[in-house]
């Protein structure tokens, strides 16, 4: 709805509300003059006591406090022209503005089709991030994407866009499993088929007790942090530190890391004696790329995935199913 129409409608509602309020006040004064006890006489007239807060009108609009409370617990449609701002954290996008998404992680954004908005991140954690708008097939829509940067207060990470039915997600490309939020148009929800690709129970694995069962052929991705391996993909391990991986014996997987804290890391697959299995190891580096991924076959020799320079903290267990 155009902003001008919203303003006109609100002005009319305020005028009507003010008139109704004045009429109610006059009725209350007249009643007070005829009732020396100061109580409302509900028996002598057939008029509804609109001035009383005890008798709720089922057709009335909720008061401001109730309306605000409802807005905080539901996905309210954002006003056209809204500037949507995030804090870029590897574990998720944290809302900064508008107030309806403040401190929310990966909040769902409900937009009006055909209207213009601005989205971006103005604060970061020193890791390389960007922001992209994608469709249900995880393809970037109309080249809505920014360049990667590790700036903590970037000024070039904003996109102005028109809301369309193609839009489905806002995403950080390097951390797409954890930094991903949904876009809805006019409050419509995606179908179960559309959502399935990113459900924790269908995207590469499932959580089973203290372990995460990973589907064969899955690429397992971590953020290399000295304190621990932080799960990025598949979605089921997103944000988990040193998650235990349950693999199917004889099946092939791919494991590696991206991002980092600027220190030197690598990844190795060890047995119970802390020996590297079948030379599954990468070179130590502070600039990870495709060379930091290992394709391997799950066997009963495997026990741990480890960063050799930080083996005490960057170590996760591998179980065989």
The gist of it:
This protein is of the alpha+beta class and 321 residues long.
Report mean pLDDT, rounded to a whole number. Answer: 79
- Helix tally? 3
Strand order of the largest sheet: 10-11-14-20-19-16-17
User: What amount of the residues lies in strands?
Assistant: 25-35%
According to CATH, what is the topology of the largest domain?
Immunoglobulin-like
Q: How many runs of DSSP E, i.e. beta strands?
A: 20
Radius of gyration: 28 Å
Terminal Cα separation, in Å?
55 Å
What is the quaternary state of this protein?
single chain
- How do the SSEs run, as a string of H and E? HHEEEEEEEEEHEEEEEEEEEEE
CATH class identity of the largest domain: Mainly Beta
Helicity range:
10-25%
Largest sheet: 7 strands, mixed
Q: Which CATH architecture of the largest domain?
A: Sandwich
Q: Which regions are unreliable across 5 or more consecutive residues at pLDDT < 50? A: 1-75, 190-202
Task: Tell the overall outline.
Answer: elongated
Estimate nothing, just give the exact number of structural domains: 2
Looking at CATH, the homologous superfamily of the largest domain is Cupredoxins -  blue copper proteins
Structural class: alpha+beta
């Amino acid at each position: 709805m155009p902003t001008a129409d919203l303003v006109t409608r609100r002005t009319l509602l305020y005028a009507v509300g003010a008139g109704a309020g004045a009429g109610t006040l006059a009725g209350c004064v007249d009643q007070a003059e005829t009732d020396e006890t100061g109580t409302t006489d509900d028996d002598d007239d057939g008029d509804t006591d609109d001035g009383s807060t005890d008798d709720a009108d089922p057709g009335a609009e909720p008061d401001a406090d109730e309306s605000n409370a409802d807005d905080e617990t539901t996905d309210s449609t954002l006003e056209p022209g809204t500037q949507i701002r995030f804090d870029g954290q590897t574990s998720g996008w944290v809302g900064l503005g508008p107030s309806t998404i403040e401190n929310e992680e990966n909040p769902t954004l409900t937009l009006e089709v055909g209207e213009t908005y601005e989205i971006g991140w103005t604060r970061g954690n020193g890791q390389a991030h960007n922001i992209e708008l994608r469709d249900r097939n995880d393809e970037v829509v109309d080249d809505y994407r920014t360049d990667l940067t590790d700036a903590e207060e970037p000024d070039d990470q904003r996109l102005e866009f028109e809301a369309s039915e193609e839009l489905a997600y806002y995403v950080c490309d390097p951390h797409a499993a954890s930094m991903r939020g949904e876009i809805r148009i006019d409050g419509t929800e995606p179908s179960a088929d559309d959502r399935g690709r990113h459900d924790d129970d269908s995207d590469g694995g499932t959580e089973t007790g203290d372990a995460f069962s990973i589907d064969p052929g899955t690429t397992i991705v971590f953020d290399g942090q000295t304190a621990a391996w932080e799960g990025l993909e598949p979605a089921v391990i997103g944000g988990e530190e040193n998650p235990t991986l349950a693999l199917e014996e004889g099946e092939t997987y791919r494991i590696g890391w991206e991002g980092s804290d600027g220190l030197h890391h690598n990844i190795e697959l060890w047995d119970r004696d802390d020996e590297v299995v079948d030379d599954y190891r990468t070179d130590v580096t502070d600039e990870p790329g495709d060379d930091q991924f290992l394709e391997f076959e799950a066997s009963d020799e495997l026990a741990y995935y480890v960063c050799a320079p930080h083996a005490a903290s960057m170590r996760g267990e591998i179980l065989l199913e």
